[in-house]
Design a protein that fits this description.
Low-confidence stretches: 1-8
Distance between the termini: 57 Å
Helix content: 10-25%
Number of strands: 6
CATH superfamily: predicted glycosyltransferase like domains
Number of helices: 2
Largest sheet: 6 strands, antiparallel, barrel
Structural class: alpha+beta
Shape: elongated
CATH class: Mainly Beta
Order of helices and strands: EEEEEEHH
Strand content: 35-45%
Number of domains: 1
CATH architecture: Beta Barrel
CATH topology: Thrombin, subunit H
Length: 122
């Protein structure tokens, strides 16, 4: 019997989503994610004054068709690159509503539900 191992430098537990960006609000400024997962998010073009380890309240917005999903949660700043204007954060608290929205976005479930509703009303 032969054992096959996958070699991976990836340490993330959750798959990163780039195709469906979400909007994140930090300290009154809005950003669109470069990528995100159930574990956190990465922002490009970040201009702000945070320290690694801070846990600010963040607003999350996502649109699916004409439906807007808005949530507030807390995230820990884990990486800041001021030269490249990047900020990475891990979600600290995800209640059931936030988790349901993020899972629905990542799996396409929310988009499929939206399309189903459109077909029924047509």
């Amino acid at each position: 019997m032969r054992v096959v191992k996958a070699k991976s430098k990836e340490r993330r537990r959750d798959r990163r989503i780039q195709e469906t960006p979400i909007k994140v609000e930090l300290n009154g400024s809005g950003y669109e994610t470069a990528n995100w997962s159930l574990g956190g998010f990465l922002l490009y073009s970040f201009y702000g004054d945070f320290q690694i380890g801070e846990t600010p309240i963040v607003g999350i917005k996502a649109e699916v068709g004409d439906q807007l999903f808005q949530h507030v949660t807390r995230a820990e700043i884990v990486r800041i690159d001021f030269n490249r204007k990047l900020l990475a954060a891990n979600f600290v608290e995800l209640d059931d509503d936030v988790l349901n929205t993020l899972e629905g976005l990542s799996t396409g479930r929310l988009r499929r539900e939206h399309l189903r509703k459109q077909r029924k009303s047509a």
